[in-house]
Write a structure and sequence with these properties.
This protein is mostly beta strands. Helices cover about 5% and strands about 30% of the residues. The protein has four helices and 29 strands. The chain has a six-stranded mixed β-sheet, with no helix packed on it. About 45% of the residues are buried.
């Protein structure tokens, strides 16, 4: 009898387990649990190997381009191809996107590219919400000024700024229709959404609208907001070298001097109707000139393409990364009016076949300077991040990390005492490892000293300081986020 009871229980358990395995919905778990997929160990620079650890924080993303922490728990991430804003809470990826952008153009480097978030308590500004019922019914709007500069921000909440390439069905005022369908144009746009921090988004408000033609490469797209709520947006040359903004000489063609809204960093104030800060570097020279008025919105020009901008938390200065064509990727300090040199110059001026500053198109209020660091063989440089916490190392705080898309490397640089350039002696403490880098230009096979960690096989698209002071690295092809933290604590 006892054997019969035991056998019956065993049969029951077997049947129960079989039914559970066959019919249980595992998506309930997979949507909330980080997949324990094996990945090659990240290799940390020997100087930091005993004090730094790298862990998988979250995965399951599809071609992510940008991420932003909005508070101590919530991280927002963009998916380039899908058009999704994904929400990660305490490392867990929510199953449904916060929002999905429709009518997205995703060819080549187009897509959902840039994200910036403004919190009520972050700046001097209060908030404003100006809702449109449909993102695709917003009328055409160039970066242009109105006379009313009243403060628009009044309501509370977050402001989400999204940069993406949109198929815009508003051809009456556009003349750059593309492809086989003449019923839409392709535009690079920045929209502002209002978000309550939970699940409700309102808006959007269109605040920047420019052509994405010819493209489809070099759209830029990264954005940053400074302490005063000013928004910086970087845009590449759209694969067109035909304008003064690419240092292309005008000659007899007067149109080459009319700003083309490419190869620039735009600086705008979303809190006022004009969007135009009067302290922009070209404002006083172009504000009242109808042909050159667009220059009023620019902070910098001469940029081939960029996947990274950040603001120095100590000085408030803007820095960027820039991608060379077949020679020289760059890290730059971007002071107001900076002409980065493309297409005449990439890398140090002295390495550009007798090119001089006089060969550049120097607009009133502009200046040129060499990059703070460059790689002769392009690495596909992407994001730049100032580590804003000493949590993973007191010597790392307020210094620079950059990533690349070609190798999956994370690089580290110490700024000089003036915070105007790279201190290579402090960056690489071993003198033997500094050989060949004294000129702040990495030639072939001498860059290892500036690599902080390598082995990010998905290749790096974004780097962010987390709310607890750790460093987070976003990788593109495998859709992962890594956390870099201290071994202690």
């Amino acid at each position: 009898m006892k054997r019969y009871v035991i056998l019956s229980i065993a049969i029951f358990i077997t049947i129960f387990v079989f039914i559970t395995l066959k019919f249980f919905d595992y998506s309930i778990i997979s949507n909330y649990v980080i997949s324990q997929v094996s990945y090659r160990q990240i290799e940390v620079n020997p100087v930091y190997r005993s004090s730094i650890k790298v862990e998988l924080y979250s995965d399951g993303l599809s071609y992510p381009t940008s991420m932003v922490f909005v508070d101590n728990r919530i991280l927002l991430v963009l998916e380039k191809e899908e058009g999704n804003i994904r929400l990660i809470s305490d490392g867990l990826l929510r199953p449904e996107p916060l929002i999905k952008i429709q009518n997205l153009s995703t060819e080549a480097e187009r897509g959902l590219l840039g994200l910036a978030v403004l919190n009520k308590n972050d700046t001097k500004n209060s908030y404003y919400s100006n809702n449109h019922s449909n993102i695709h019914s917003v009328p055409e709007q160039d970066i242009s000024e109105s006379d009313n500069n009243e403060n628009l921000f009044e309501s509370s909440g977050y402001r989400l700024y999204l940069y993406f390439t949109e198929r815009a069905y508003d051809t009456k005022s556009n003349n750059d229709s593309t492809g086989d369908d003449p019923d839409y144009t392709v535009r690079n746009r920045v929209y502002e959404y209002t978000w309550d921090g939970t699940g409700n988004l309102s808006g959007p408000r269109l605040i920047m609208d420019i052509s994405a033609e010819p493209g489809p490469y070099h759209n830029g797209g990264k954005m940053k907001i400074d302490k005063d709520g000013i928004l910086y947006v970087v845009m590449g040359d759209l694969t067109a070298v035909n304008n003064a903004l690419q240092n292309y000489p005008g000659g007899p063609n007067h149109s080459n001097f009319i700003p083309s809204n490419s190869s620039v960093i735009v600086r705008i104030d979303p809190s006022i109707n004009s969007y135009l800060p009067k302290d922009n570097p070209f404002y006083e020279y172009s504000h009242y000139n109808n042909e050159l008025h667009q220059l009023s919105f620019y902070y910098s020009y001469g940029i081939r393409n960029s996947f990274g901008i950040d603001i120095d938390p100590v000085t408030g200065n803007l820095w960027d990364t820039e991608n060379g064509e077949d020679i020289y990727d760059e890290i730059n300090l971007v002071e107001p009016g900076f002409n980065s040199g493309w297409y005449k110059v990439m890398g140090p001026l002295q390495s550009n076949n007798d090119t001089t500053v006089s060969d550049l198109v120097m607009l009133k209020g502009s200046h040129y300077s060499d990059p703070e660091f460059s790689w002769k063989t392009p690495i596909g440089i992407t994001d730049i991040e100032f580590l804003k916490s000493p949590n993973i190392g007191a010597d790392l705080v307020n210094n620079v990390f950059v990533g690349d898309i070609n190798n999956g490397n994370l690089y580290y640089f110490v700024l000089n005492s003036y915070r105007s350039g790279i201190d290579i002696n402090s960056t690489i403490k071993e003198e033997s490892n500094r050989k060949g880098l004294e000129d702040l230009a990495a030639d072939d096979s001498i860059e290892s000293g500036v690599i902080f960690a390598k082995g990010f096989d998905g290749r790096i698209t974004d780097i962010e300081t987390g709310p607890e002071g750790n460093l987070y690295v976003l990788t593109y092809f495998d859709g992962r986020i890594y956390k870099i933290s201290s071994m202690v604590g």
